[in-house]
Amino acid sequence: MKNTLQLLDEKDQLKKRAQEIISGVEKETRKMNDVENTEFDSITKQLAEKDLEIRKIEEDNKINLNTITTKQTNQTMENFSLLKAINDLANNKPLDERALEVDEAGRAEFRKSGQNFAGQLILPMETRGAISAVTAGSGLEVVATDKLGILEPLRANLVLVQAGATYLSGLAGNVSIPAYSGSNALWEGETDAAQDGAGAFTQVDLAPKRITTYIDVTKQFLIQESSSAETMLMKDIVKAVSNKLEATIFGTVAGSATQPAGLLMGVVADTVAPTYAELVGMETALETANVVGNKVFIVSPSAKGELKTTLKASGVAAGYLMDNDEINGYPALSTSAVPSKGIIFGNFEDFVIGQWGGIDLTVDPYTQASNGKVRIVINAFFDAKPRRAGSFVKAILA
């Protein structure tokens, strides 16, 4: 029997097909032909049937809740367990009903994004209260549970988002982000014709690119039933994705069809001395380019160490280049994703991160079998680009 998520996904597919028929007819400025009329009528009928099925499931769920008696007061319906799902897959067992619901939600996200997926378990980035658990205590309580909550921890784990970068989730297909260079106000004589002072619209194209990484967990860990172990595994998956993403974004590698360009691409190493004048020069460069907004420094741990131990001028009273997590009065964040002695300064609101679909997991019980471990291969789709290249200045300290 289909669940509500499956029926909603099928409704979406039917609505898309109906819209395709309507768009085709409107484009050719004609009426529907017999074949189109028949298909459209069939879609309308199927949509009505699926609405009835969804309402029936909702009514049945209410009846089931109302008929649970005190005989079940010490029972708790099984919640989704990522540990159990991975352990089942590692031992060639079928997923339980809860895991299948979560997996179907993840697959629906991927289908809507237009991306392919091949894993045995697909985790949705977002849960919208579609999955709930029933907990019986002294009375009956219905508890809406956020089973996964991957999206918010992932955003929180990204230093770029902390710096103000825009994070776009749930994308479908390639996306064009408009960028505007700003307009110019001009002085003219009282009766002179006005000149065009408008800036230029450009666009930044984002296309899904696959991030792949893996984590190894012991078989002993997978049989744990504690919530803390479950949380730890989810954090490890989120951390693996965020680390890989930011290491690429802050890197020095040129962009390609398979990965975003690194912000430090083309920056020559060891050419900037760690001096107050150089840091002020970075600020001056952004102001000259009319970059406004909340400017932030993001530095590598090695650059942070050097800046925190280098005086602005002779004498301790002058202060250090970095103090109280600030550089020259601007917030300064540090991450090991930035290459050694790297510094990036800019308005990170002009940087966009796009994400498509959920997280695709493949459970490999063989590669690390001799070590008593299971390898979890993680795939996800992202792209990242600045809307305005001039919003950032970069350097690698000597």
Task: Looking at this protein, list some descriptive labels.
six-stranded mixed beta sheet; phage-related protein like fold; 2 domains; Methane Monooxygenase Hydroxylase, Chain G, domain 1; flat; alpha+beta; 24% strand; 398 residues; five-stranded mixed beta sheet; 10 helices
Helix fraction?
25-40%
Number of strands: 15
Q: What is the 3D form?
A: flat
Number of contiguous helices: 10
| SSE succession | HHHHEEEHHEEEEHHHEHEEEEEEE
Q: Assign the CATH topology of the largest domain.
A: phage-related protein like fold
Instruction: Give Rg in angstroms.
Output: 27 Å
Order of strands in the sheet with most strands: 9-10-11-8-12-15
The level 1 CATH classification of the largest domain is: Alpha Beta
Q: Mind summarizing the main beta sheet?
A: 6 strands, mixed
| Intertermini distance | 65 Å
Integer tally of domains? 2
Low-confidence stretches: 68-78, 129-147
Percent in strands: 15-25%
Which secondary-structure class do the elements indicate?
Answer: alpha+beta
What is the residue-mean pLDDT, rounded to a whole number? 83
Name given to the CATH architecture of the largest domain: Alpha-Beta Complex
